[in-house]
């Protein structure tokens, strides 16, 4: 009997071994696959099981976390939701994250390996969510938001010398806090926001492209000067008024007077279509493409760190289309941020700094884990060209179409733009204004701004860029110069 | 044993250590480990040691002390590992149930489980005190079988709970009489096989290479076994029928050593299981779950219980999330009973789970050890049977929740929520204590010439 008992015991041992091997299979060898299974709620539970890190503007958190007591416990709150929505985006239990909430999610949610202390490999503990410090300045942001006053449009403001983004406003906006959490209210808010014809969740400043209209003439002027198509800004050109588009019988008209054979300086200041269209054709498609590329056009990989919609300048077109494209029409489109970059490049002596929105990310205790700094995007134009264009843009504000943007005591350069919109141009035009401002005692301009207002309440004859958009740009620049 | 020396002076009899002190110190460790786990849950969930941690420790300690005193008084030679392992597993079970209670504020189970554990320890003490010699049980083999069948039949008129008709509900308490039938069957098998094992093994006809016993000898035991399994199938308690079958096979093998029968038995069982598995919808579902635990996810219905259980084990990884820091409550229904091991796996990790398995293995091994040391066939078979009940229970349910075998409802001994199970397991440990006491008691020296009765039990 002893032998049989021993054998039975051996059988039990076999069962034990089977259990242990199987447990090791599930807990060690298949663990990663099981952990990553989308149906496994643990990742989600851990994510919302602790307060989310904050997004900071001027050192103050514009976000918060609320303990909802639900399974997905901490819900995002926003101190000034609509104002900062184009920066923060939303962080929803149901609909995920966007913008900075998405781009810096590993730090904010505490999963980033950067947050772990040196001995972090030993602990499985999830780190507290870190913070994202933005480059936004609250005063500038508020000025832009107040300036748009709920009208459909957007503002982007940059510090030309560094590329720091000072303001990003999209209007009309929404409160991203409505999407935090779970439940019927959140689903209802999502449906309502998506159904809204004003598209409040669209971040117009970086995700919407508009035809830039005459504001694009700065780019064309830079290309012409750099390519040697114009050597003296004050010398008369050969462009007749009206200018017949090459290869067609279509005559391009001007809104302004005195454009026939006008100099580049005059053409920029009063916004002559004919001169600029002809210059674009003179530079030629390869030269124009090279020039616009230096400003950031056709770059689909621009990140601030959120993705920025690609601003477009067609790569293949005929000379007539090139002529139209060179005055910011045809298929040329740009985001407000892109046009702010154009102004910033001029303001910074031709050197375009890469725009960035997140200054640094920190641990919950404030230790920096990642730092962004100024870096050069491209040399958009030569310093000489930049200096010439600066003077032309100052002239626009002092005696041209942009007088509404003038700030007493400060050096302000600008350019208006108005782009037709809708089928047969029957929609209200888009009003553009791009500008930069330099304090009297400062070595270089402190701010570059692009403002676009959709549905400008003005007819085409008025230079609506100067009428609708310039006052907003002025308010933004004043706020930026104030401190 | 001891040969007379040259001087013809009998040497002092070798003192066999009783090891009660070892048992006591291990018990202290077991209680402290449980209290530590209890405090750990509180610290993880609310950042503070639960206010009643001391009371909980004192309660568990008092139970352990009571059991220890009973053993010290009436079974002084018993194996010193059995009781501490039982206390540790029971304490850990209470901690896990308490921990899950925190997630389900509307259905608390820890307090009830503590009451049942107290009853279990009470019965343990009663068995140790009242049963002075395990051989008494041999007389009641048929009575055991009869009462086991009655116990199993009792729940049939009661309404089914979660698909199984194995519950009796009276007042607020529910009881699973079938649990207790396990012990009675072990007693019956041991008694019957001990009395008839020679007749079973050596009489009868030989068919080809297989020695078949006469129907007169094998008949009663097969009849009773078939009856019990039939009842369980009626009640849809598949785990227990699997357990009874395994128990029957092991004990028959140990009694007769006939491998051929075991092979035939296993073959028949495999055929039966395959038939039931493909025909009976309930069982078929379980087998499908086992083969495709993630089918419900692919079908867009979210993870099923087994998938959730596997997620929990995986989340634990090597070292576990720590007590109170896991999400095994996602398993939902039966998280505290059948799936309690998933909580252990998630929060204690593979390391903790291995420790738990080894505790069970040690418990089983000590049972087998007692069986080897005993001299009477009934005692041996009883010890093997009781240890095998524990081993099979652990394998069936642990294998089920980790996806090794199809899941069948069964309680993890001592860990899982379930009063009848805890009480039954305490009685099993009491019987093992009694058996091991007999096994380790020094036998009277024959050379001394005088026969000293070891104990004044009836024989």
TrEMBL record, chain B:
Compartments in which it is found: Membrane
Membrane topology recorded in Swiss-Prot or TrEMBL: Multi-pass membrane protein
Bilayer-crossing regions: 24-41, 53-73, 80-98, 110-131, 140-160, 180-196, 217-234, 240-256, 261-279, 348-369, 381-405, 411-433
Superkingdom: Bacteria
Keyword vocabulary terms for this entry: Cell shape, Membrane, Transmembrane, Transmembrane helix
Annotated Pfam families: FTSW_RODA_SPOVE (PF01098)
Protein name per Swiss-Prot or TrEMBL: FtsW/RodA/SpoVE family cell cycle protein
Native organism taxonomy: Bacteria, Bacillati, Actinomycetota, Actinomycetes, Kitasatosporales
């Amino acid at each position: 009997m002893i032998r049989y008992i021993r054998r039975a015991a051996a059988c039990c041992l076999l069962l034990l071994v089977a259990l242990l091997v199987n447990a090791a299979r599930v807990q060690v060898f298949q663990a990663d696959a099981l952990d990553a299974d989308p149906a496994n709620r643990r990742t989600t539970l851990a994510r919302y099981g602790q307060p989310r890190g904050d997004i900071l503007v001027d050192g103050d958190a514009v976000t918060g976390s609320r303990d909802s007591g639900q399974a997905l416990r901490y819900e995002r709150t926003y101190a000034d939701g609509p104002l900062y929505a184009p920066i923060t985006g939303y962080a929803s239990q149901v609909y995920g994250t966007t913008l900075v909430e998405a781009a810096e999610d590993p730090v904010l949610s505490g999963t980033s390996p950067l947050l772990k202390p040196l001995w972090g490999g030993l602990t499985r503990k999830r780190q507290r969510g870190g913070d994202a410090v933005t480059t936004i300045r609250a005063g500038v942001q508020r000025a832009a938001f107040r300036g748009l006053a709920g009208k459909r449009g957007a503002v982007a403001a940059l510090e030309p010398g560094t590329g720091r983004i000072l303001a990003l406003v999209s209007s009309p906006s929404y409160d991203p806090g409505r999407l935090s959490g779970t439940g019927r209210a959140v689903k209802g808010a999502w449906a309502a926001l998506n159904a809204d014809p004003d598209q409040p969740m669209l971040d117009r400043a970086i995700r919407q492209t508009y035809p830039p209209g005459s504001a694009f003439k700065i780019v064309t002027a830079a290309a012409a000067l750099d390519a040697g198509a114009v050597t003296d800004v004050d010398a008369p050109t050969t462009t007749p008024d009206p200018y017949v588009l090459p290869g067609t019988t279509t005559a391009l008209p001007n809104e302004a007077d005195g454009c026939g054979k006008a100099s580049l300086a005059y053409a920029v200041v009063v916004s002559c279509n004919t001169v600029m269209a002809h210059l674009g054709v003179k530079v030629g498609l390869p030269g124009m493409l090279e020039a616009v590329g230096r400003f950031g056009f056709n770059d689909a990989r621009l990140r601030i760190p959120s993705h920025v919609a690609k601003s477009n300048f067609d790569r293949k077109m005929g000379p007539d289309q090139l002529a139209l494209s060179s005055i910011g029409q045809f298929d040329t489109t740009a985001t407000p941020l892109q046009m702010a970059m154009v102004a910033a490049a001029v303001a910074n002596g031709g050197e375009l700094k890469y725009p960035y929105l997140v200054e640094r990310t920190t641990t919950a205790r404030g230790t920096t884990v990642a730092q962004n700094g100024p870096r050069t995007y491209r040399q958009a134009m030569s310093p000489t060209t930049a200096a010439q264009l600066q003077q032309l843009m100052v002239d626009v504000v002092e005696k041209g179409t942009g007088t509404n943007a003038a700030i007493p005591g400060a050096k302000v350069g600008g350019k208006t733009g108005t782009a037709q919109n809708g089928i047969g141009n029957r929609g209200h035009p888009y009003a553009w204004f791009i500008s930069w401002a330099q304090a009297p005692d400062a070595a270089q301009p402190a701010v570059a701004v692009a403002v676009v207002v959709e549905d400008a309440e003005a007819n085409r004859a008025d230079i609506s860029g100067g009428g609708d958009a310039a006052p907003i740009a002025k308010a933004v620049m004043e706020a930026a110069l104030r401190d | 044993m001891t040969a007379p020396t040259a001087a013809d002076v009998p040497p002092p009899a070798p003192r066999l250590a009783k090891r009660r002190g070892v048992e006591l110190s291990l018990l202290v460790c077991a209680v402290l480990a449980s209290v530590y786990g209890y405090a750990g849950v509180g610290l993880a969930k609310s950042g503070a040691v639960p206010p009643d941690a001391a009371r909980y420790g004192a309660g568990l300690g008092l139970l352990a002390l009571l059991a220890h005193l009973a053993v010290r008084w009436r079974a002084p030679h018993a194996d010193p590992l059995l009781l501490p392992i039982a206390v540790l597993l029971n304490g850990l079970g209470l901690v896990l149930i308490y921990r899950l209670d925190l997630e389900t504020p509307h259905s608390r189970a820890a307090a009830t489980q503590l009451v049942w554990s107290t009853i279990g320890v009470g019965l343990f003490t009663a068995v140790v005190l009242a049963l002075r010699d395990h051989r008494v049980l041999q007389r009641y083999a048929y009575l055991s079988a009869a009462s086991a069948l009655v116990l199993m039949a009792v729940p049939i008129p009661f309404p089914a709970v979660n698909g199984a008709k194995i519950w009796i509900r009276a007042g607020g308490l529910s009881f699973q009489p079938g649990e207790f039938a396990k012990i009675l069957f072990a007693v019956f098998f041991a008694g019957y096989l001990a009395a008839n094992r020679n007749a079973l093994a050596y009489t009868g006809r030989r068919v080809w290479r297989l020695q078949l016993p006469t129907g007169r000898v094998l008949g009663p035991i097969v009849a009773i076994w078939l009856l019990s399994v039939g009842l369980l199938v009626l009640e849809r308690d598949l785990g227990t029928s699997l357990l009874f079958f395994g128990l029957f096979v092991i004990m028959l093998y140990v009694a007769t050593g006939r491998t051929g029968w075991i092979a035939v038995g296993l073959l028949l069982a495999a055929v039966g299981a395959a038939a039931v598995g493909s025909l009976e919808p309930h069982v078929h579902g379980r087998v499908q779950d086992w083969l495709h635990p993630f089918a419900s996810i692919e079908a867009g219905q979210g993870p099923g219980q087994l998938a959730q259980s596997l997620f929990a084990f995986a989340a634990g990884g090597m070292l576990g999330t720590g007590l109170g820091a896991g999400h095994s409550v996602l398993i939902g229904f039966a998280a505290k009973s059948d799936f309690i091991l998933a909580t252990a796996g998630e929060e204690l990790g593979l390391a903790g789970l291995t420790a738990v398995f080894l505790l069970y293995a040690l418990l089983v091994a000590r049972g087998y050890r007692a069986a080897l040391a005993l001299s009477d066939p009934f005692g041996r078979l009883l010890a093997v049977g009781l240890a095998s009940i524990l081993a099979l229970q652990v394998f069936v349910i642990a294998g089920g929740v980790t996806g090794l075998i199809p899941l069948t409802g069964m309680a993890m001994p001592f860990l899982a929520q379930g009063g009848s199970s805890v009480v039954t397991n305490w009685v099993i440990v009491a019987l093992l204590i009694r058996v091991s006491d007999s096994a380790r008691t020094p036998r009277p020296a024959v050379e001394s010439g005088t026969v000293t009765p070891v104990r004044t039990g009836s024989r």
